[in-house]
Write a sequence for this structure.
């Protein structure tokens, strides 16, 4: 996430990672901002946070803290953060909570603060069958927000949010400047390779709301992939429907107190 760390001196900055998982990105950020900076990992899964804290204890990093929270209710003061990062999390947030994820990002960012999100976005409307497919949801595909046609045009206002009937696309519009959205054109079908699905199967039980699930998940909302899911999903060309995108934006210095779409 090059823009996340920018070209200016970022020593002493506060960086927040939304859905930090075991903490890999926030440890990198912690190193870049130095001992005077503060790196904050947020995740709703106590199991992932336990891994993150274990990783922190094993490392020499002293400027990291972790908080258990959903990312649509951040336990952080307004205008306290220089940079918000997030990798492959917002697609997992229930659609009804996505608007408040973005308003929370806006609230906690200082004026001039930066957003650097990497996530899966929908390029072509998936339709209800795909949207409701739990295997695709825990596989980080069917929860993807839509990216509007023309996102590559320089003057285009990025809209990162559901474009389904009755929903307004969500923000990254008013209050932000220098918005850049990049389709990394990764081959997402790689996730269908059986070893990868095997790995994901093992991960799928932890980052969920379900108290009954027990171990190490990195995705999802309470649903485990089953063997049958893998063969069904193998038929779908992920690259046709979704892409892996980087989204960068600056909160304008003169931004209004609340974001608008
Ligand atoms: C695919 S993993 C990504 C982890 C990390 N960002 C990385 O790149 O390694 C998704 C993470 O988001 C967390 N997560 C999913 N939905 C969340 C929510 N609504 N609030 C907070 N954390 C959430 C999960 O617990 C999990 O750790």
């Amino acid at each position: 996430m090059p823009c996340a760390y920018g070209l200016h001196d970022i020593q002493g900055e506060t960086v927040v990672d939304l859905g930090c998982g075991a903490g890999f990105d926030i440890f990198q950020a912690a190193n870049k901002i130095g001992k005077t900076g503060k790196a904050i990992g947020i995740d709703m899964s106590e199991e992932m946070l336990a891994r993150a804290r274990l990783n922190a204890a094993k490392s020499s990093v002293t400027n990291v803290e972790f908080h258990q929270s959903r990312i649509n209710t951040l336990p952080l003061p307004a205008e306290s953060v220089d940079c918000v990062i997030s990798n492959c999390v917002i697609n997992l947030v229930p659609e009804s909570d996505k608007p408040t994820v973005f308003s929370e990002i806006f609230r906690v960012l200082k004026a001039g603060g930066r957003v650097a999100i990497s996530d899966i976005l929908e390029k072509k409307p998936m339709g209800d069958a795909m949207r409701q497919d739990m295997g695709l949801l825990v596989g980080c595909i069917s929860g993807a927000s839509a990216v509007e046609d023309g996102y590559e045009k320089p003057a285009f206002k990025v809209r990162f949010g559901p474009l389904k009937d009755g929903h307004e696309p969500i923000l990254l519009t008013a209050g932000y400047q220098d918005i850049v959205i990049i389709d990394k054109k990764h081959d997402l079908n790689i996730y269908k390779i059986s070893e990868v699905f095997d790995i994901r199967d093992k991960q799928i039980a932890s980052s969920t709301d379900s108290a009954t699930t027990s171990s190490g998940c990195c995705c999802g909302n309470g649903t485990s992939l089953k063997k049958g899911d893998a063969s069904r999903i193998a038929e779908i060309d992920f690259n046709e429907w979704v892409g892996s995108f980087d989204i960068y934006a600056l909160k304008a210095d003169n931004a209004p107190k609340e974001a608008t779409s």
